[in-house]
Specification:
Largest sheet: 8 strands, mixed
CATH architecture of the largest domain: 2-Layer Sandwich
CATH class of the largest domain: Alpha Beta
CATH superfamily of the largest domain: Histidine kinase-like ATPase, C-terminal domain
Number of strands: 22
Radius of gyration: 37 Å
Helix content: 25-40%
Shape: extended
Oligomer: single chain
Structural class: alpha+beta
CATH topology of the largest domain: Heat Shock Protein 90
Strand content: 15-25%
Strand order of the largest sheet: 5-4-3-6-2-1-7-8
Number of helices: 17
């Protein structure tokens, strides 16, 4: 029998490794930015075209590479960060696996230009699909410029799995934010399709957060500082009143490396317990500094998940630090009332005896003496109207034939006029229309064959969805003008999404009077939308567009209608009156597709009398 096991060629092995390292353009952005940081760069520029599918270019002013290093950097498992396996537990750098550049070069067109400070000229290397096309001497400034073009050009199946430009660009921005937030001492700039999206100068941590998420963020931040032998915590948490429905602004950095940790996230949420509305999530930007020997970074290809040596201690410290900050800055409610500091006992009165107050009473005072009585009588009194003509008030009340003495032994009440129904007994009709609300979540109604159980949240979603879809299609949404314009603050990235959806939003009834880089001003809203819900609707809409719910195959109109119906639908737990329940049932069965919600979930179920009878057998 012939041998069937063989070694894979390098270019195939690199393409397989690329499946772990490079999932989308944002993965390339992360790896290249981290390499620039490891090169001690102080200025880093990121240039993006078509959400990174066409071009991802990173330019830095770091140390650069020699001719040999530039060539070796694209070999698999080539790294300058580690020498032995023990070095994995003493890491203070970003990239260390030695697979990033080799994997990227296997699935894209890569051009590298680099120069060290002491060299007069630099080196240029062009690679296409792991094959070196050219290597030559070029004139280039100090540092490194690496361009990754036509990602997944030789793996079209992987390219087809990429989402739309909107979604991929959001992932690129997310990676850019994570790296920029972790290193406020480095200047970053991002250019998207030729226009400048971010220009972040060197600053402190608070200013870096404000530069990324907008000036309005400054008033939302509460500082957190804690130093222990095990863990040092620094950063900020958001005030509870600014909590959002989405988890966008949640950042953990361990030794300047962004990580995801549901366990530590639970510690933050427990510190906010009792301060947040149901469904809202706190925002935080926290830097954790621990001993590198107590963490294991090399457990995930993207290095966003790490293992801690003692998670329970970190949980307790993190929860206590956040709770302390919320209380220290009077964010969390306290049981003490507002008190006057002047009433506090000074420290120098600690050993002094208290003096008993002396109360003097005039024992000769008699309130019934004449002079006191006259004094009281001199107090001002209200003037009474003359009652001499009191009998004139009753003139004309008596009429001929009326009795002056009323006998109340028999009292007759006027009854409402009753009408006979043309459709039979009214009681039977009332029984067929009776609805009941079960646990403030389901509406139970009777039908001819048995019983109907409706999910009120999903049913209302279907009703609103078809209404919004109709308004968007015919472009005749009814708008209600606001007495005072509503000003909302968003990040520059969120403003771009709103601008894309602005026309569709106007068709539903929204009226925008002014849109800037950080704020939008709304002067009109759809009739069915309360003013208090506008910010929630737009936040949910932005989140849905960024995550592309449902997907690229659906139009923006459909996405907008689904997002708005999800935000405005009656929630489970909301009590409804009888007429509201009946109105919901009638509107649901007037829809084109009453059986399912906009997200294809069942809106109601029926149970026949026979099925109920079987339950009692």
């Amino acid at each position: 029998m012939a041998d069937i096991i063989q070694l894979l060629p390098d270019h195939v092995a690199n393409q397989i490794a690329a499946g772990e390292v490079v999932q989308r353009p944002a993965s390339v952005v992360k790896e290249l930015l981290e390499n620039a940081i490891d090169a001690d760069a102080s200025i880093i520029k990121l240039i993006i075209k078509d959400a990174g599918k066409t071009l991802v270019q990173v330019i830095d002013n770091g140390k650069g590479m020699s001719t040999t290093d530039a060539r070796l950097s694209f070999e698999r498992h080539a790294t300058s960060k580690i020498r032995t396996a023990d070095d994995l537990f003493h890491l203070n750098t970003k990239g260390f696996r030695g697979e990033a550049l080799a994997s990227i070069a296997a699935i894209a067109h890569v051009e590298l230009k680099t120069k060290q400070e002491q060299d007069e000229v630099g080196n240029s290397i062009v690679i296409e699909g792991s094959t070196i096309v050219s290597q030559e001497v070029v004139v280039t400034p100090k540092g490194t410029s690496i361009s990754v073009k036509n990602l997944f050009y030789n793996i079209p199946a992987r390219r087809n799995f990429l989402k739309s430009n909107t979604v991929e660009l959001r992932h690129v921005f997310d990676e850019f934010h994570r790296v920029a937030l972790a290193h406020p001492s480095i200047s970053f700039a991002l250019y998207n399709n030729g226009s400048e999206s971010f220009n972040l100068p060197i600053s402190n941590y608070r200013q870096r957060i404000v530069n990324i998420f907008g000036n309005k963020t400054n008033e939302k931040l509460v500082p957190v500082e804690e130093e222990t032998e095990v863990l040092n915590i620094s950063g900020f948490v958001g005030k509870p009143e600014y909590a959002k429905k989405t988890r966008g602004e949640q950042y953990f950095f361990v030794n300047d490396r962004f990580i995801k940790s549901p366990y530590l996230n639970h510690a933050i949420c427990s510190a906010f317990e009792g301060l947040l509305k149901s469904g809202n999530h706190p925002s935080y930007f926290l830097n954790l500094t621990v001993d590198p020997q107590t963490i294991d970074i090399n457990i995930h290809p993207t290095k966003t998940e790490i293992k801690f040596d003692d998670e329970h201690t970190l949980y307790a410290l993190l929860r206590s630090a956040v709770k302390h900050s919320l209380g220290q800055f009077n964010i969390a409610p306290v049981l003490d009332f507002e008190r006057d500091a002047n009433l506090d006992t000074p420290y120098n009165f600690g050993n002094k005896e208290s003096n008993t107050p002396v109360i003097e009473v005039d024992r000769s005072y008699n309130p019934f003496k004449e002079n006191n009585y006259t004094a009281v009588k001199q107090t001002p009194t209200f003037k009474k109207q003359s009652t001499s003509n009191w009998d004139s008030l009753y003139v004309g009340l008596e009429s001929k034939g009326t009795k002056t003495d009323h006998d109340f032994s028999e009292v007759h009440f006027e009854s409402e006029e009753t009408t006979i129904s043309a459709f039979g007994d009214d009681n039977k009709i009332e029984q067929t229309k009776t609805t009941y609300q079960l646990h403030n979540k389901y509406i139970v109604s009777t039908i001819k064959s048995g019983m109907l159980v409706i999910d009120q949240h999903r049913a209302h979603q279907r009703i609103l969805y078809e209404d919004f879809l109709k308004n968007l299609t015919i472009k005749e949404g009814v708008s209600q003008q606001l007495l005072f314009p509503l000003e909302l603050h968003f990040s520059s990235q969120e403003i771009q999404i709103i601008n894309q959806l602005k026309e569709d939003l106007e068709h539903t009834g929204f009226v925008f009077s002014n849109v800037t880089n950080e704020t939008i001003e709304i002067t009109g809203v759809p009739v069915t939308v309360p003013e208090s819900e506008v910010s929630i609707i737009l936040e949910q809409l932005i989140s849905d567009v960024e995550n592309e719910v449902p997907d690229t195959h659906f139009s923006a109109t459909d996405l907008l209608a689904k997002s708005m119906s999800k935000s405005l639908a009656i929630k489970a737990g909301q009590s409804l009156q009888k007429d509201e329940q009946e109105h919901l049932v009638n509107k649901l069965f007037a829809c084109k597709e009453p059986n399912v919600s906009p997200t294809n979930r069942t809106t109601f179920i029926t149970m026949s009398v026979d099925e109920l009878d079987k339950k009692f057998i």
